[in-house]
Design a protein that fits this description.
By secondary structure, this protein is α/β, with parallel strands linked by helices. It has a single domain, classed as Alpha-Beta Complex (Protein-Tyrosine Phosphatase, Chain A), CATH 3.90.190.20. About 40% of the residues lie in helices and about 20% in strands. It has helices at about 30-40, 60-70, 85-90, 105-115, 130-140; strands at about 10-15, 15-20, 45-50, 75-80, 95-100, 120-125. Strand 4, helix 3 and strand 5 form a beta-alpha-beta unit. Helix 1 (about 30-40) packs parallel to helix 2.
Length: about 140
């Protein structure tokens, strides 16, 4: 049995909710791949919870906007977490995207929003520590 490295494409299910924890790191190429994978998941509703992609320098805003537009065809809802992720949400479009400054706000929203059958991708740059959000969401679904 193949097991992906820690925090890379780890799939866990709680009830009827699937969490794809790909929180180890994020860059434009890996995020596109993860969103394509989310499209192929079994979830009825695809939710991308995306932290900032750091280390992109002066191109950061442009990349976040581009990937937000890319996400339009790959998920039903985008939840941006962090200062740069507001551009992901902007690229996706406000009706299907939400933006939160921190993981705690995003978690509160997810707890109210997630429903059985959802597939949720969680991804962000290493410094965003999106695995904390994945762990907290899994715990809330277990209770």
């Amino acid at each position: 049995d193949f097991r992906p490295p820690h925090l890379r494409a780890t799939v866990q299910t709680r009830g009827e909710v699937t969490i794809i924890n790909d929180s180890y790191n994020s860059n434009p190429s890996s995020l596109k791949g993860a969103l394509r994978w989310l499209t192929l998941s079994d979830g009825r509703r695809k939710i991308a919870v995306l932290g900032d992609m750091l280390e992109l320098g002066e191109s950061a805003r442009r990349y976040h906007l581009q990937l937000g537009r890319f996400a339009r065809n790959h998920c039903d809802m985008l939840i941006g977490v962090g200062a740069l992720s507001k551009y992901l949400a902007e690229g996706m479009g406000t009706r299907r995207a939400r933006y939160f400054e921190n993981k705690e706000e995003a978690l509160r929203f997810l707890k109210r929003t997630v429903r059985p059958g959802d597939a949720i991708l969680i991804k962000g740059s290493r410094l965003m520590r999106m695995e904390d959000l994945a762990r907290a969401l899994l715990a809330s679904l277990s209770s």
